[in-house]
């Protein structure tokens, strides 16, 4: 549970949200399947197991271990993850094809997402008619159910599907045994308002007791806002990945959504935010990608300050930061550069245990700025120590 005294977002959000019901939010992690669809990512089975353990440690409720039809390696990874004794439920992924589902059954999984395209552009791309896809969905979901699998039906490109067909397909999947449904924004084109609308429609069609998932992508940078809207509209499971790794603009980013829900909406998500930065670092090593230093939640600059005006307020974190760095188990720090001020010099001297008089601060600051401009970058601590030796 978040220590709310460490959240400094003020009272505006509370005023704006007054009277709204607080919905529960749970996470379904698809780093190992949809995350791996990021160009160039290819996790080996050992790495998949490590990632699954890491994501389990973050506190997600469900982990999509993979799509067994892709390769024997994927099967091996799924088998290992299923046997790893994770707290999270382990889910498989399958197209609406009996042979795909058979591979999930063979692995002994108890839960599976079964997906099929439901928008006209997607059906046209596969050269499959609505009738044909309905038939495949009925056969695949029935086969899974007969084999004891708990199914979530996932309509690819839901947000561009004809509403009448959407309703028909989801009801058909439930009629043959699916227990849950996913509303899917495959191309990240839905506004948060459209997501609210579609989840509301789906809730009306499937009734109050069928869990609704929301699976979104970040092509317009709206995935977090849409996930929050989905929760507000009554979705119970949010799909996403660590760092939002995924195809194109990526998937919804679980830690980012959890941070917003916990800190701004006061909704408990079960995610351990103190573990998120390490998980992100490790995933970046494994999948070999970089992130912007200003990236919310995990960016390396979030609690590092260069500007002098901000350094002057460094002693009062709530004046310059939206929440305590300790909530993410992250150190705060001052760096020296062109934008440093007098307070930056004093703080850096304190941090490095350097003794110098108040009267020396202006000359040290001038030297710091000079070197920063020469370098077009930040000073190292060693460079600052040299300056203090020469001028302090
Ligand atoms: C398909 C997805 O969206 S899953 C998410 C994307 N993930 C990946 O692509 C993972 C890596 N991919 C792979 O390893 C391979 O591309 C595979 C295993 C997915 C596909 O293997 P392929 O043998 O190339 O399958 P292919 O694309 O030819 O499709 C086979 C059949 O499945 C049908 N099909 C494809 N997707 C679906 C679906 N979701 N539901 C029902 N039928 C489908 C096709 O229409 C085709 O039918 P046809 O034989 O009657 O023409
Ligand atoms: O078509 C795909 O990429 C697989 C399904 C999916 O993850 C999605 O539709 O977002």
Automatic annotation (TrEMBL):
Lineage: Bacteria, Pseudomonadati, Pseudomonadota, Alphaproteobacteria, Hyphomicrobiales
Reaction catalysed by this enzyme: acetyl-CoA + 2-oxoglutarate + H2O = (2R)-homocitrate + CoA + H(+)
Entry keyword annotation includes Transferase: yes
UniProt-listed PANTHER family: HOMOCITRATE SYNTHASE, ISOPROPYLMALATE_HOMOCITRATE_CITRAMALATE SYNTHASE FAMILY PROTEIN
Family: Belongs to the alpha-IPM synthase/homocitrate synthase family.
Domain Pyruvate carboxyltransferase residue range list: 25-277
Protein name (database record): Homocitrate synthase
Domain of life of the organism encoding this protein: Bacteria
Function, as annotated: This protein is a Fe-Mo-cofactor biosynthetic component.
Pfam families: HMGL-like (PF00682)
Keywords: Transferase
E.C. no: 2.3.3.14
């Amino acid at each position: 549970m978040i220590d709310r005294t460490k959240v400094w977002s003020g009272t505006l959000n509370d005023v704006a949200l007054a009277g709204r019901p607080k919905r529960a939010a749970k996470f379904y992690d698809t780093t190992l399947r949809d995350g791996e669809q990021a160009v160039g990512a290819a996790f080996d089975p050992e790495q998949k197991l490590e990632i699954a353990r890491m994501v389990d440690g973050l506190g997600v409720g469900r982990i999509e271990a993979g799509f067994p039809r892709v390769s024997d390696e994927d099967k091996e990874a799924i088998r290992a993850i299923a046997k790893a004794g994770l707290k999270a439920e382990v889910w498989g992924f399958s197209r609406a094809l009996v042979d795909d589902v058979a591979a999930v059954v063979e692995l002994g999984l108890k839960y599976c997402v079964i997906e099929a395209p439901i928008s006209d552009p997607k059906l046209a791309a596969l050269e499959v008619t609505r009738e044909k896809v309905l038939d495949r969905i009925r056969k695949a979901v029935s086969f899974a159910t007969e084999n004891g699998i708990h199914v979530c039906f996932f309509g690819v490109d839901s947000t561009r599907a004809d509403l009448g067909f959407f309703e028909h397909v989801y009801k058909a999947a439930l009629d043959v045994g699916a227990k849950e449904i996913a509303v899917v924004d495959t191309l990240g084109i839905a506004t948060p308002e459209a997501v609210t609308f579609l989840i509301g429609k789906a809730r009306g069609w499937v009734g109050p007791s069928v869990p609704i998932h929301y699976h979104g992508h970040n092509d317009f940078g709206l995935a977090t806002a849409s996930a929050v809207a989905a929760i507000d509209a009554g979705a119970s499971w949010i799909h996403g990945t660590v760092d939002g790794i995924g195809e194109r603009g990526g998937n919804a980013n679980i830690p980012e959504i959890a941070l917003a829900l916990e800190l701004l909406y006061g909704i408990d998500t079960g995610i351990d935010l103190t573990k998120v930065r390490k998980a992100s670092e490790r995933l970046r090593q494994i999948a070999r990608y970089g992130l912007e230093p200003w990236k919310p939640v995990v960016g390396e600059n979030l609690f590092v300050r260069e500007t002098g005006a901000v350094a002057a307020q460094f002693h009062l974190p709530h004046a310059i930061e939206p929440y305590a760095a300790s909530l993410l188990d992250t150190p705060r720090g001052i760096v020296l550069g062109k934008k440093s001020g007098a307070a930056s010099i004093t703080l850096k001297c304190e941090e490095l245990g350097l003794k110098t008089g108040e009267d020396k601060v202006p000359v040290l600051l001038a030297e710091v700025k000079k070197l920063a401009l020469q370098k077009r970058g930040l000073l190292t601590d060693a460079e600052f120590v040299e300056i203090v030796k020469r001028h302090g």
